[in-house]
Amino acid sequence: MANIKSAKKRILVNRTKADRNKAIKSGVKTAIKKVYAAIDANDKAAAQTAYNEAVSTMAKAEAKGVYHKNTVSRKVSRMATAVNKLA
To answer: Nearest 5°: phi and psi at 56?
Structure first.
């Protein structure tokens, strides 16, 4: 355990940020799962709605620095391709 005051503060701040990042990542994963669940159900309208919400959630996570922009771009692209393949 840290003895120095600034080190103790760092531990608290890092824990707070880790919890925040974990919550944001969990929200992104849930949004992505909703998109693929709609795709598996072959529901184009629901998939499009879920896709729009997922893109918004992922953009917010990217803006907060939780995900790298290329990671978000790759995931969005793959989801878009999957949604557009629905007839």
So the answer is: -65, -45
